[in-house]
Amino acid sequence: MVDRLFRMKTKSIFVRLPLLFIFFDAVRCDYFPTLYPRESETREIKELNGLWNFRADMSVNRSQGFEEKWFMSRLEKTGPVIPMPVPSSYNDVTQDKSLRDFTGWVWYDKEFFCHYHGKDRGSYTGTVYWMITTNSEEAKVQVEVVDADSNTVVMGEGIKGQASVSNVKLWWPYSMVKTGAAYMYVLKVTVKDSTSASTDIYRQPFGFRTVNKTNTQLLINNKPFYCHGVAKHEDYDLRGKGLDMVSVAKDFNILKWLGVNCFRTSHYPYAEEIMDQADQQGIVVIDESPAIGLLQQVYNLTKALDPTRLVTFASSNSNPLSDHVMNIVDVVMVNIYFGWYQDTGYLQTIPYQVPPTLEGLYKHYNKPVMVSEYGAETLTGLHTSPSFTFSEEYQKDLLIQYHQEYDKLRHEYLAGEMIWNFADFLIDQKTNWAYGCNKGLFTRHRQPKMAAFTVRERYQKMINETQKYQN
């Protein structure tokens, strides 16, 4: 998109790049249209691929952007924007039909640093802590906290310390507030040598929030948080387990379309780019790490690094009398498959199994309980009436049965529900799996099954109820 070569007479600046125009505020540029950009000892190429802010001009004459001069400020200041991967075709990334068929002007915006050689919910105070390791005892460290408008709100010095930010804007999940979700600050760390020359600069985005629990609820910023979510895999058709920002953007658009406010990174830590997007879009993450035989050690390390961090694990054992590790963790999380692996085909048994199973865990441990997996295998396009195992109707009916039981418990001790799985994914060849695991709400190439619409209706309703209560 930006395949031009500029030589800039400046040190470090912010640059805004709409789709059609490039503006440099008070920057002199010498433009060489015949030279292809190539790196050398004196020239640096900056890769701008990734997620940009995006807005389509939906006005009748498609000229609102020019008339209101969207290019003169950050795009987010002109109205609602969404993340959009570059390069990609915007028509195929979102769940918005009007954007899929859109023809007209669209606007992209991204802030980056060019370095060339030569609404308020109340008054809160946030505290940021830092501990920095340098390779020189003579190094001097300067720390700045920068808000979303690029204003420095507090400064500090030293390799270790803390600073308080008054009137802080809190990070909220998007499902809990109508406006002001996912507010992010940046911690800017500048390391200088003995001559006070900058030797390194690093920026770490972060948000101010508290996470806590009672014996029945999860709390974010001291407000009840109920996880209506999914378990995921880093898997996509053709690419498999890997990272590309088009797939990331598509998945987050689907998550928002569904109304998902929480997902579990089954069964491994995800790429930092995905975690960053969750932070920026206001989605809570249960970050999973392999810990078989090491749960106590992982728990201890986590608490040593962050005593406020809640720790849990996904257990396939719902019998507290035979489980030996649920007593360690902060939140009880369990996989249940009634109507699928147990009593296959008999959905009428679910009301007699789900409540006593979850209640037994709660009474034994006196902790919030979450369902980390439940669902049914579904072959796309297989339809039966009445519903039968592996049909789309069966998956839908099974989820509805579970939801009816969850609704009885989520105002008591149930703190969350996560469907297995967000999308189909490929596994090794087995006689009891038809080309991978097909318990997804979406196919491997992200097309919805019937159950996706059932879940969307439920989750979006829960968002509306939560925002009405919280606001």
Helical run tally:
8
Structural domain count: 3
Strand order of the largest sheet: 19-18-17-23-22-21-20
Helix content: 10-25%
What radius of gyration results from the CA coordinates?
25 Å
Identify the CATH homologous superfamily of the largest domain. Answer: Glycosidases
User: CATH top level of the largest domain?
Assistant: Alpha Beta
Q: Tell me the CATH topology of the largest domain.
A: TIM Barrel
Distance between the termini: 41 Å
Work out the strand percent: 15-25%
Q: Mind describing the biggest β-sheet?
A: 7 strands, parallel
Please give the CATH architecture of the largest domain.
Alpha-Beta Barrel
Domain Glycoside hydrolase family 2 immunoglobulin-like beta-sandwich: 135-209
InterPro entries: Beta-gal/glucu_dom_sf, Galactose-bd-like_sf, GH, Glyco_hydro_2, Glyco_hydro_2_cat, Glyco_hydro_2_CS, Ig-like_fold, Ig-like_GH2
Function: Plays an important role in the degradation of dermatan and keratan sulfates.
Family: Belongs to the glycosyl hydrolase 2 family.
3D structure, described in words:
The chain is α/β, with parallel strands linked by helices and 471 residues long. It folds into three domains: 6-115, Jelly Rolls; 126-209, Sandwich (Immunoglobulin-like); 212-470, TIM Barrel (Alpha-Beta Barrel), CATH 3.20.20. It is built from eight helices and 23 strands. It has helices spanning 64-67, 97-100, 245-258, 272-281, 295-305, 350-365, 392-409, 450-470; strands at residues 6-8, 12-16, 29-31, 50-56, 82-86, 106-109, 111-115, 126-131, 140-146, 152-157, 160-165, 185-192, 198-206, 211-213, 218-220, 223-225, 227-231, 262-264, 284-286, 314-315, 332-335, 369-373, 414-419. The chain has a seven-stranded parallel β-sheet with strand order 19-18-17-23-22-21-20. A four-stranded antiparallel β-sheet has the order 10-9-12-13, with no helix packed on it. It has a three-stranded antiparallel β-sheet with strand order 5-4-6. A hairpin with a 2-residue loop joins strand 15 (218-220) and strand 16 (223-225). The radius of gyration is 25 Å and the shape is globular. The two termini are 41 Å apart. Mean pLDDT is 87; it is low at 1-33 and 116-121.
